[in-house]
Amino acid sequence: MDWRRFSVIALVIAILFTVVLLIGQARDEPLVIITSLMATTIAVATPLTLGALSGIFCERAGVVNIGIEGMMLGAAFFGWLAAIYMNTIFEMPPLLSLIVGVIGAILTGGLFALLHAVLSITYKVDQIIGGTVINILAIGITGFLNRQLFFESGSIFGGNVPHAPGVLPRIQIPFLVNIPVVGRIFEQQPVAISAILLVIISHYVLFHTRWGLRTRAVGEHPKAADTVGINVAFMRYANVVIGGFLAGLGGAYFTLESVPSFEPLLTNGRGFISLAAMIFGNWSPFGAWAAALVFGASQAFQIKLQLFRDVIPAQWAFLQNSYIVGLTPYILTMLILTGIVGKTIPPAADGVPYEK
Amino acid sequence: MTDDNIVLQAKGITKRFPGVLANDKVDFDLKKGEIHVLLGENGAGKTTLMNILYGLYNQDEGEILVNGKAVKVDTPNDSIALGIGMVHQHFMLIPVFTVAENIMLGDETTKRGMLDRQAVSTRVKDLSHQHGLAVNPEALVGQLPVGAQQRVEIVKTLYRNAQILILDEPTAVLTPQEADELFVIMRGLTERGVSIIFITHKLKEVLAVSDRITVMRAGRVVGTVTPKQTNQAKLASMMVGREVILKVQKGKAKPKEQILNVENLHAIDNRGLESLRGVSFEVRAGEVLGIAGVQGNGQTELAEALTGLRSTKSGQVTLMSTDVTGKTPRPIIETGLAHIPEDRQKHGLVLSYTVADNLVLCNYYLPPFARGMVLQQEAVDTNARRLIEEYDVRTPSPYVPTSKLSGGNQQKVIVARELSRDIKLLVASQPTRGLDVGSIEYIHKQIIAMRDRGIGVLLISAELDEIMALSDRIAVMYRGKIVATVPASEATREKLGLWMAGSGID
Asked: What residues does each domain of chain B span?
C-alpha cells in the first residue's frame, strides 16, 4: 500500500465530505456535520474492515475466500440467536447475552471457515466453488431456521419474534471523548473499536512476526515453505479459520451492534465489498481499512444528503433523487476496482492448492 | 578410506510411484569433504533419491545413515536437524521477500515476539563474508540475478549449519562464468569440511569438479567411478545404456538467399516492460543462426514476435520477401514457418488430444485432412502412422493422449508435425530442454538435416554447448538487443559468456 493510494482515498473522502458540508451548512454547524459524517463512516466501515481482514488472512495464506458474505450472514444469525436464547430462555442479563452472542458469531464464522478449509485444502475443491457453497449454505440455513424457529406455529418462540436484548453499548474512549463536539467520534461500540484495533494487530502479525512470515510464505510459494520445514496445510487451515473468526465478528456487527434484529439476506453484499476493499488495499490491513473507509464515507454521504434533501440548491437538483445518491457507494466500489490507482498484486499462490 | 569418513549413506533405497519404480535398491554414500556427482538422464531417479534424503519423500524400503547412525528422515525438519541442506533445481525462494526473510524462514529469530531482522542480517553478512558468498540481506530476492539467488540458497543452508549440501542441477540456470564461480564456492566449502552431492547431466562439468561420480539409470545405480577412470563418452554410455555420439556431425554450411530479415524490432513483455529493444538480424537458407543468451533477455519474446504470438511495437519482420509484421500465426505458418516452442507442453501440444490430432494441428483445415468442414479421419490416420514411423515416436498407438508420452517423445511429435510440412524457416526455441542424451542426439540430427536441405534455422537456446555445436553463426542477446554476432568458428565459450553477461562488448 503506497502513499499514492492513501492520497487518492483521502481525496475521495474529502470531496464527499465537502459536498455534504456545502449543502448542509444551511442547516447545521459544519463541525457537527463533520463529526456525524465521521461517526457514520467508521460504523459503516466496521463490517467491511473485518471482512477484508478475513480475506487478507485467508488469501495471504493462499486460499481464496469468496465465502465471507456467507460467513458474515451465518454469524449474524447464529450470534443473534445465541443472544436471544441466553436472554429469553436462560434469562441471562442483556449485556451478558450479547457477549455470548458475539462469541457465538465468531465461532460460527470459524466453523464455516473450517468447512471452506476442509474443501479447499484437504479435498482441493476449486476454491471459488467452495466459497459459493458457503454463501448458498448460509442463505439456506439462516432463511430456513429463521422461519422454523420464529414463524412456524408450534415453533419454540410460538410464532413471535421475541425481543432481542438490545445492542452492544457504546464505549467512551477516556479523555478523547471529552473533546468538545468532535469527541463524539470517540464514542463507539465495541465491534467498531475492535475492528480498528484488529487492523493494527493484523498488520503487526502479518509483517513483523514469525506467524506472519510463515503465513505469507505459504501464500507465495508453498513448496519453498515446505522445504524449510513449515507445515503448509496447518498454516493454511489456521489462517482460514482465523479469517472465519474475523468474518464472524463482522457478522456480529449487523445483529448485535447495528440493529437488534435479523432478516434474511441482511448482509446484502457487504462480504463481496469487503473483498473489493481487500484487493484495493493490496492485501494489506491498513490499505483495506482505508478502502473500507471510502465505502463508509460514501454511505455517510448518501445518508446525510437524504437528510438535507430540502436544502439542496436547485442547480444540484439531481442530488435530491435518493436513487442516484444511494448508488454512490456502489459506483465508487466499481471505479476503485477498475484500478484507477494502478494494479494490485495478489499473493502468488493465491487459490492454488498445494501438491507435493 | 575407512567408514569413519562416510557422513551420509543410503542403503537399498526403494521408492515406488504409481506405475513407476523411481528408485530400485539404490546404494549411495558420501565422504566428508568430497564432491560426489550424481549423474543420470531425466527420470533416472536422481531427484527422487535426493528428495528422500531431504525428507520431502519417504522411502518404501531401505535405510539412511548419517555419520554411521541409522536415522529417520520423515520431513525436511528432520534432515535440517541432521545438518543436511538442499538447493533445489527450481529455487525455493520467495521473490517478494528480502534475502534475510528468505534465509530465516522456518528458523526465525525473534525478539519479544517480533522478527529480529537486524540480528539475521548481521549473521547473514558474517556467513557471506566467511564463505565468499556475496549477498545483500536487505535486497528483494525477486530483483536479484539468478546467480545471486543461488548464493542466497546456499547461504540459507549454511545458516542452518548444513554439513551436507545437496545441489540439484545448480548449473542449469547459470552462465558459464557464474558456473565457474559456483565451482570455486563449492571447493571453498569442501575445504571447510562440508560434503557436497552435486546432481547434473552436463558431462563436461562433471569431470572438472567431482571427486567421485555415481551414475544412475532407470532408478538403479549403474556404477561409481572417479574422474580419472573415465571420460565423457564412457559416462554418456553409462547414462544411456548404449553408445552415444556426443559430437554433432555436420559439414560446412552453404548459405543461400535470405529467408528471414528482422529490422529494428521492438516489443514489450507480459509485465509491460520493453523486452525487445531494436533487434535486427537475418537468416539465410541453409544456415543455422544460433541465438545465445541467459534466459530472460528477450529470447522468448523474440520467438513469439516472429511466430505471430506477440504483437510488436515497431520494426519489421520479412519472411520470404513477404512482410509478416503484425500478422497472425496462420498466415505466417502458411508463408513457410515452422516453430518448435520453448514450452512444449503449454504451447507446442494440446496434451489432452491424441497424438494423431496433435500431428495435424497446423494443417487440419486443409485437404487432404479436411473436406469442407468435415475432418477426414482416414487421412489423419495415415498421416499419423507415417510420421510416427518416420520420426520414431514411441507411442503405444496414434490414439493415446499426448500427455501420456515421455518428454522426449512429446518433443518428437512436435518435430514431426513441424518438419514434415513444406517449410522455409525453422524457429526452434530450447528444442532439447529437459531431454535426455538420446533424444538430444536425435533432435540435433534433425536440425542439421533441415539445414542441409536448404532451410533456414533460427536456434534459440540457453545451452551454450548446443548453440556452439549446431550454429553456423552465433548472435548473443542481452537485455533485448543483439549485442554481438560472430561466425561459429570464431566463437569461444569465454567470449560468448562475457557477452551474455553484458560485458566485453566493443
From this structure: 3-240, 258-350+423-500
